[in-house]
Amino acid sequence: MSQPYIVPPCHEEVEILFEDDFLLLINKPSGLLSVPGRLPQNKDCMITRIQRDYPTATVAHRLDLDTSGLMMVPLCRDVHADLTRQFQAKAISKSYTALLWGDIAEDGSIDLPIACDWERRPRQKICAQQGKPSLTHYQVLERHGDRTRVLLKPVTGRSHQLRIHSREIGHPILGCDLYAHDEALAAAPRLMLHATTLKFTHPLSGEVFDWHCPPPF
Known about the structure:
Family: Belongs to the pseudouridine synthase RluA family.
Mean pLDDT: 95
Shape: globular
Protein name: tRNA pseudouridine32 synthase/23S rRNA pseudouridine746 synthase
Number of helices: 4
Pfam families: PseudoU_synth_2
Number of strands: 11
GO molecular function: catalytic activity, acting on RNA; pseudouridine synthase activity; RNA binding
GO biological process, one term: tRNA processing
Low-confidence stretches: none
Protein backbone atom coordinates (compact mmCIF):
# COMPACT_ATOMS: atom_id res chain seq x y z
CA MET A 1 0.00 0.00 0.00
CA SER A 2 1.26 3.47 -0.85
CA GLN A 3 2.46 5.79 1.92
CA PRO A 4 0.42 8.88 2.90
CA TYR A 5 1.12 11.68 0.43
CA ILE A 6 1.49 15.32 1.46
CA VAL A 7 0.31 17.55 -1.38
CA PRO A 8 2.75 20.36 -2.25
CA PRO A 9 1.27 23.87 -1.88
CA CYS A 10 -0.66 25.14 -4.90
CA HIS A 11 -0.04 28.83 -5.46
CA GLU A 12 -2.44 29.23 -8.40
CA GLU A 13 -5.84 30.71 -7.66
CA VAL A 14 -9.24 29.22 -8.43
CA GLU A 15 -10.72 31.21 -11.31
CA ILE A 16 -14.46 31.95 -11.16
CA LEU A 17 -15.86 31.94 -14.69
CA PHE A 18 -19.56 32.41 -13.91
CA GLU A 19 -21.68 33.06 -10.85
CA ASP A 20 -25.26 33.71 -9.91
CA ASP A 21 -27.13 33.26 -6.64
CA PHE A 22 -27.32 29.48 -7.10
CA LEU A 23 -24.07 28.14 -8.56
CA LEU A 24 -20.54 28.88 -9.70
CA LEU A 25 -18.53 27.66 -12.65
CA ILE A 26 -14.84 27.59 -11.84
CA ASN A 27 -11.51 26.71 -13.41
CA LYS A 28 -9.55 24.54 -10.96
CA PRO A 29 -5.76 24.70 -11.28
CA SER A 30 -3.61 21.60 -11.53
CA GLY A 31 -2.08 20.62 -8.19
CA LEU A 32 -5.11 21.60 -6.08
CA LEU A 33 -7.35 19.01 -4.42
CA SER A 34 -11.10 19.26 -5.05
CA VAL A 35 -11.91 18.37 -1.43
CA PRO A 36 -9.78 18.13 1.74
CA GLY A 37 -7.45 15.16 2.06
CA ARG A 38 -7.31 12.89 5.10
CA LEU A 39 -4.04 14.28 6.40
CA PRO A 40 -4.19 17.61 8.26
CA GLN A 41 -1.48 18.88 5.88
CA ASN A 42 -3.85 18.31 2.93
CA LYS A 43 -6.71 20.58 3.97
CA ASP A 44 -6.13 23.23 1.30
CA CYS A 45 -8.45 22.49 -1.62
CA MET A 46 -10.87 23.99 -4.10
CA ILE A 47 -13.95 23.86 -1.86
CA THR A 48 -12.32 25.30 1.27
CA ARG A 49 -10.97 28.20 -0.80
CA ILE A 50 -14.39 28.83 -2.38
CA GLN A 51 -16.17 28.64 1.00
CA ARG A 52 -14.18 31.60 2.30
CA ASP A 53 -16.32 33.85 0.09
CA TYR A 54 -19.29 31.51 -0.53
CA PRO A 55 -19.96 29.71 2.79
CA THR A 56 -22.87 27.64 1.40
CA ALA A 57 -20.83 26.17 -1.48
CA THR A 58 -20.79 22.37 -1.81
CA VAL A 59 -19.17 19.79 -4.10
CA ALA A 60 -21.24 18.27 -6.92
CA HIS A 61 -18.34 16.46 -8.63
CA ARG A 62 -14.56 16.27 -8.46
CA LEU A 63 -11.43 16.53 -10.56
CA ASP A 64 -8.23 14.71 -9.69
CA LEU A 65 -5.50 16.65 -7.90
CA ASP A 66 -3.41 17.02 -11.06
CA THR A 67 -6.29 17.65 -13.48
CA SER A 68 -7.24 21.25 -14.19
CA GLY A 69 -10.39 22.72 -15.66
CA LEU A 70 -14.12 23.24 -15.41
CA MET A 71 -16.15 22.41 -12.32
CA MET A 72 -19.66 23.28 -11.12
CA VAL A 73 -20.07 24.44 -7.52
CA PRO A 74 -23.64 24.53 -6.15
CA LEU A 75 -24.48 27.30 -3.68
CA CYS A 76 -27.65 25.76 -2.23
CA ARG A 77 -29.04 22.33 -1.40
CA ASP A 78 -31.70 22.23 -4.11
CA VAL A 79 -29.19 23.00 -6.86
CA HIS A 80 -26.82 20.34 -5.52
CA ALA A 81 -29.61 17.77 -5.56
CA ASP A 82 -30.66 18.66 -9.11
CA LEU A 83 -27.10 18.49 -10.47
CA THR A 84 -26.68 15.11 -8.77
CA ARG A 85 -29.82 13.88 -10.56
CA GLN A 86 -28.46 15.18 -13.86
CA PHE A 87 -25.20 13.28 -13.32
CA GLN A 88 -27.09 10.09 -12.46
CA ALA A 89 -29.25 10.44 -15.57
CA LYS A 90 -26.13 11.07 -17.70
CA ALA A 91 -27.66 14.40 -18.72
CA ILE A 92 -24.35 16.21 -18.09
CA SER A 93 -21.64 15.87 -20.72
CA LYS A 94 -17.96 16.64 -20.24
CA SER A 95 -14.87 16.51 -22.39
CA TYR A 96 -11.18 16.79 -21.60
CA THR A 97 -8.19 17.91 -23.63
CA ALA A 98 -5.10 15.73 -23.18
CA LEU A 99 -1.64 15.32 -24.63
CA LEU A 100 -0.90 11.62 -25.13
CA TRP A 101 2.36 9.83 -25.81
CA GLY A 102 2.80 8.58 -29.36
CA ASP A 103 1.10 8.99 -32.71
CA ILE A 104 -2.58 7.97 -32.59
CA ALA A 105 -3.83 6.96 -36.02
CA GLU A 106 -7.55 7.70 -35.73
CA ASP A 107 -10.50 8.41 -33.46
CA GLY A 108 -11.82 5.55 -31.36
CA SER A 109 -13.30 4.26 -28.11
CA ILE A 110 -11.96 2.41 -25.07
CA ASP A 111 -14.34 0.02 -23.34
CA LEU A 112 -12.50 -1.60 -20.41
CA PRO A 113 -13.80 -2.28 -16.86
CA ILE A 114 -12.02 -0.51 -14.00
CA ALA A 115 -11.56 -1.62 -10.38
CA CYS A 116 -9.61 -0.24 -7.43
CA ASP A 117 -6.10 -1.67 -7.10
CA TRP A 118 -6.33 -2.09 -3.33
CA GLU A 119 -2.70 -3.10 -2.93
CA ARG A 120 -1.48 0.04 -4.72
CA ARG A 121 -4.05 2.69 -3.84
CA PRO A 122 -4.89 5.23 -5.19
CA ARG A 123 -4.13 3.38 -8.41
CA GLN A 124 -6.88 1.68 -10.38
CA LYS A 125 -6.62 -1.38 -12.62
CA ILE A 126 -8.36 -3.04 -15.53
CA CYS A 127 -10.24 -6.05 -14.18
CA ALA A 128 -12.78 -8.09 -16.13
CA GLN A 129 -14.05 -9.90 -13.02
CA GLN A 130 -14.45 -7.06 -10.50
CA GLY A 131 -14.25 -3.90 -12.60
CA LYS A 132 -17.15 -1.57 -13.31
CA PRO A 133 -18.09 -0.88 -16.94
CA SER A 134 -16.08 2.09 -18.21
CA LEU A 135 -16.28 3.76 -21.61
CA THR A 136 -14.26 6.60 -23.13
CA HIS A 137 -14.48 8.04 -26.63
CA TYR A 138 -11.53 9.96 -28.04
CA GLN A 139 -11.03 12.31 -30.97
CA VAL A 140 -7.66 13.21 -32.47
CA LEU A 141 -7.14 17.00 -32.63
CA GLU A 142 -3.48 17.42 -33.59
CA ARG A 143 -0.31 15.36 -33.97
CA HIS A 144 3.13 16.66 -32.97
CA GLY A 145 5.81 14.06 -33.59
CA ASP A 146 5.79 11.69 -30.62
CA ARG A 147 2.65 13.14 -29.03
CA THR A 148 -1.00 13.59 -29.96
CA ARG A 149 -3.53 16.14 -28.70
CA VAL A 150 -6.90 14.49 -28.20
CA LEU A 151 -10.37 15.29 -26.91
CA LEU A 152 -11.43 12.65 -24.38
CA LYS A 153 -15.16 12.12 -23.85
CA PRO A 154 -15.94 9.87 -20.87
CA VAL A 155 -19.35 8.21 -20.89
CA THR A 156 -18.79 6.83 -17.39
CA GLY A 157 -17.00 8.57 -14.54
CA ARG A 158 -14.69 6.07 -12.87
CA SER A 159 -11.73 7.19 -10.80
CA HIS A 160 -8.65 7.72 -13.00
CA GLN A 161 -10.66 6.51 -16.01
CA LEU A 162 -8.99 8.74 -18.58
CA ARG A 163 -5.51 8.07 -17.25
CA ILE A 164 -5.75 4.29 -17.20
CA HIS A 165 -7.75 3.99 -20.43
CA SER A 166 -5.11 6.05 -22.25
CA ARG A 167 -2.35 3.85 -20.90
CA GLU A 168 -4.18 0.69 -21.91
CA ILE A 169 -4.15 1.68 -25.59
CA GLY A 170 -0.43 2.37 -25.37
CA HIS A 171 -0.68 6.17 -25.22
CA PRO A 172 -0.38 7.38 -21.60
CA ILE A 173 -1.09 11.01 -20.74
CA LEU A 174 2.09 13.06 -20.60
CA GLY A 175 3.16 13.95 -17.07
CA CYS A 176 1.06 11.20 -15.43
CA ASP A 177 2.86 10.02 -12.30
CA LEU A 178 0.59 6.99 -11.80
CA TYR A 179 0.28 5.29 -15.19
CA ALA A 180 2.83 6.76 -17.63
CA HIS A 181 6.19 5.18 -18.43
CA ASP A 182 9.33 7.16 -17.58
CA GLU A 183 9.61 8.91 -20.94
CA ALA A 184 5.98 10.05 -20.97
CA LEU A 185 6.20 11.18 -17.35
CA ALA A 186 9.31 13.26 -18.03
CA ALA A 187 7.83 14.79 -21.20
CA ALA A 188 5.70 17.37 -19.34
CA PRO A 189 5.92 19.43 -16.13
CA ARG A 190 2.37 18.47 -15.07
CA LEU A 191 -0.41 16.06 -15.95
CA MET A 192 -1.52 17.17 -19.40
CA LEU A 193 -5.24 16.72 -18.76
CA HIS A 194 -7.77 19.56 -18.61
CA ALA A 195 -11.57 19.54 -18.25
CA THR A 196 -12.40 21.62 -21.30
CA THR A 197 -16.17 21.52 -21.86
CA LEU A 198 -19.15 21.12 -19.57
CA LYS A 199 -22.76 20.97 -20.72
CA PHE A 200 -25.70 20.89 -18.29
CA THR A 201 -29.09 22.45 -17.57
CA HIS A 202 -29.26 25.19 -14.97
CA PRO A 203 -31.40 23.70 -12.18
CA LEU A 204 -33.55 26.80 -11.68
CA SER A 205 -33.58 28.81 -14.91
CA GLY A 206 -33.71 25.79 -17.22
CA GLU A 207 -31.04 27.39 -19.43
CA VAL A 208 -28.68 24.96 -21.14
CA PHE A 209 -25.10 25.86 -20.28
CA ASP A 210 -22.42 24.78 -22.74
CA TRP A 211 -19.14 26.10 -21.38
CA HIS A 212 -15.67 25.91 -22.88
CA CYS A 213 -12.45 26.53 -20.95
CA PRO A 214 -9.32 26.19 -23.11
CA PRO A 215 -6.38 24.24 -21.66
CA PRO A 216 -3.29 26.12 -20.46
CA PHE A 217 -1.01 23.80 -22.47
